């Protein structure tokens, strides 16, 4: 049952195919390889600067393998249906574990907690309304909300004997998505869950499937199944490479599409023109390769003088001159600089400069000869007091001198800006054959603007007035040129412009045509070989799914055929073929709900149990809910086979699966989950149903606070269920040992309607068998059967004696005493 590996590295396999393809170009090899590696690698390869991609080194030591683990326990508090801390202890080795419990008992909360701790998400959470997701905290025990999942390493793992724990903790009042997820290998520090190396495996070999997901795998549409199988086959890397190449093709194809679309429009324009040049150009662009030089020569080579004049006039119509607003800014700065400089008292600054020079020379003298009388006035003394005073005055003079220099520099810059404001403005030459009345005025305005006056005050008014005059002259010239161009343009000009526009687009497209062709060749090769890879990798998975379906399809007239993955992107779909009574039909369209669930399991199990998966456990939440007895029997066959190599954990809302396990004496861990007041969840060994009913009857009869009338009405029903449960166990066990299939035994059981008929099935093998002798053989049997038959109607007197009789009768039936 354990599926063969779906293959090693997809990238290595693609390189192998490239190597064996003698027809593939080197550039195709490089682009395919780069696309497999990532966006940056493909961009670099298309840019031409990247080295040739290197093939994966299959001989290099592999990274540390992810931990291979069994489930040991799941501990939950404050999450979903579990209030105070509760732990689900599991046998961490190959085998079957069934956790039973009524709906609402909290059993699925363990499965959801496991899923959330491992993935940070839940299929059920993601596919329900927001208000449902917001109620994830337990109503009775809000804090703390926490999950701990303990794993045991596989015995043949080098790390066997150790364990790892994955946890999820929520702060008080935190939202669901705000949990802190962590992992810890025994004896090491806590790390992120990523440290276990399970991230990719949780996508490719997901070991968890809930009832909702079981239905959703097929009901969410063929694209959902396509994605699941694509991940299993490792072909999501191929899909990513395809997407990258497709995006590159789209990007590189934009100029080519624009040129082709424009050519189509140009052909219509040429057909509508009566000019002989249009017919000639049409011939030139009728077939590839297009001679763009000849097209341009035909379009412009025989153009009239008016065509050249029109081009000049349109250039004049786009004339740009100095902005009056900018001129105002330049003049304002010059004015401000002039005022600031004037306020600086230029003459005073010069005097201070001279005085500073004298003081500096006196200080130099003082340093040379020391103190003494002033050599200038011969009255004062150049002593220490004088020196300190002179240095201070010199410092003040230097500061004022520096300020004066800044003002002078600012004024120089402002004047230079005003002087050169019109430097870039040039006169416009005349247009041959065209009289522009406003041309002379414009050129005069240019000359006037460029002849700046020598005085600063004259320059101020010159800049502003000349800019305004020049703007007015330019506006008049532009308007006149635009009007004349429109008047002079002949009927050929629009066609010529259309041709010129297409020539430009075609020339631009040609620069990328080679790369576009290379990308298209790489995409074509990848898609052709992806189909082959997909078929090769899908074949063993389909074989395994058909084998599993063959075990589970009891009494189904639907046979499973081939499974194929078709299309890509938004048109991708998985096609499941089948036949009904030998007539070909789409399998999904003719299957019942139970059959769809069985098929989903058949597809899910190979994905989850490949040897490449690090998970040695498989968790199924309520997989038999929609199954009939025949499907359950086949499902149990599948579980038995899986349990040889996997820890198979099944959550079930009823006792049908445990009953089938008991009937066939299959070794399994059977657990029972109950939910008590305050969301207290209790996990215990799953006793046989008969013993559970005896315990319930005992609790009712020995409850001193319970009214006797209620006891006499309620307890007989529990007696009847206990006896029938014992008969069920005995009958199915005997039938299984005799080789009968489960669903046939179930049909016989359902036909027996009364307790006595079901006891007869167990004791005699027939619902109509005579059990009178059996009932009278031991004293406790007859009164117990009487209570089962009529006690619920007449009200039975019940006490410890009748409980003893019930226990003995159940033992007689179950143990064939």
TrEMBL record:
Known partners and oligomeric status: Heterodimer of SbcC and SbcD.
SUPFAM superfamilies xrefs: P-loop containing nucleoside triphosphate hydrolases (SSF52540)
Signal peptide: none
Protein family (similarity comment): Belongs to the SMC family. SbcC subfamily.
UniProt name for this protein: Nuclease SbcCD subunit C
Occurrences of domain RecF/RecN/SMC N-terminal (ranges): 70-657
Region (Disordered): 43-66
Phylogenetic placement of the source organism: Bacteria, Bacillati, Actinomycetota, Actinomycetes, Mycobacteriales
InterPro entries: P-loop_NTPase (IPR027417), RecF/RecN/SMC_N (IPR003395)
Species of provenance: Mycolicibacterium pallens
A Pfam family hit: SMC_N
